[in-house]
Amino acid sequence: MLPDRNNDDTEPVQMTGTIRRVLVVDDSRLQRRILVASLKKWGFDVVEADSGASAMEICREESPDLILSDWMMPGMNGLEFCRNLRKLNSDNYSYFILLTSKSEKNEVAEGLHSGADDFLTKPVSSDELRARISAGERILRMQRELSEKNRIVSETLDELQRVYDAIDKDLMQARKIQESLVPEFSCSYGESNVSLLLKPCGHIGGDLVGMFSPGINRLGFYSIDVSGHGITSAMMTARLGGYLSSSHFDQNVAMEQRFNRYFALKPPEDVASLLNARLIADTGIEEYFTMAYCTVDLRSGLLKLVQAGHPHPLLIRKDGTMEYIGQGGVPVGLVPDIAYTREELVLEQGDRLLLYSDGFTEARLENGEMLEDEGLMDLVRKCDTGQNGQEFLDELYWNLTQIMSKEHGLEDDVSATLFEYNGP
């Protein structure tokens, strides 16, 4: 029973409004009447149930804020009722106080394990009941505040996911556009061949490779690496793809029309200077790029190279000997009015020239070190010399993936241009 204590039970319990609806479950009508009378005096909306089964029906329709349930009842007892209650998928958590004459620790532990939040020992003290309800009020308030914050976080994450999906869709489309900048990854020019490799570290990248030929025995090919990563770098590659178009020679800055009849290749150093002037003139653009650009006369094997901050091209002679060529140079778009110089060498039949981005040499290996120049030579030596150019580049990239760090993965775009000279 709830003993009177100088009529203190007529004083309302000071609540914040979290607990409004209380369910009293007891097979004793007298016990329910005593509890209900006090709870109503304290301002609660009270419903009654004379069994665990009927209490479950009430909870299925609308979960109460607080449940006062007797432990010992015929049929479904208080523990079984509590277990079944916790199985309901309800957004509203009910604070469960089990009324019992049991006081053994193992029995209390059993009740908590079943999902009860608190215990009251019969006969129930009015003061203690109000104190336990106040404690439940605080817990419910924190729980609902947390639930509301979780709801906000969940909705925010859903919105972020929708935004991410939209961005991801746009990036996939951007990748298709970027791939269109390299319509062919392998092409033959007489007996010679150019093969390309382009592996961005994300959806889109800042590397660009390409080739073009304005006529028989004349060929230009390049490897470009734009500073930074992501959308800005990819936009720059799209712009450079237009500057070095393989299909619209009138827009290609590496060519000039002569006598309104045919196109000729400009000297490589002039192409670098022209691109540098264009980038410097564009205010608001902070990106720059490195480039290795070559022209070759397929009749004589004379190759002209300009290296603008790009990794040194690797010359692979027919007999398997290798050497890095070039003097380095300054990246394009970094310093105004810079003078670029060209280098020349004569290729022999069976020689190959590999242009590549620093995604190769700066790839992180399992030991934490970078591949660097000597490591790239080792990768080349592992490749089958009897393969065609595209197969060679594919194997070269595969060899790289086998030794690079699995933890860090591909941290930079990887690209390459391979020129195979087989004479006129």
TrEMBL record:
Keyword Disulfide bond: no
InterPro entries the UniProt entry points to: Bact_Sigma-Reg, CheY-like_superfamily, PPM-type-like_dom_sf, PPM-type_phosphatase-like_dom, Sig_transdc_resp-reg_receiver
Keywords: Hydrolase, Phosphoprotein
GO BP terms in the entry: phosphorelay signal transduction system
Domain of life where this protein originates: Bacteria
Modified sites of kind 4-aspartylphosphate: D70
PROSITE patterns (alphabetical): RESPONSE_REGULATORY (PS50110)
Alphabetized GO MF terms: phosphatase activity
Keyword Hydrolase annotated: yes
All copies of domain Response regulatory, residue ranges: 21-137
Entry protein name: SpoIIE family protein phosphatase
Annotated organism of origin: Tritonibacter litoralis
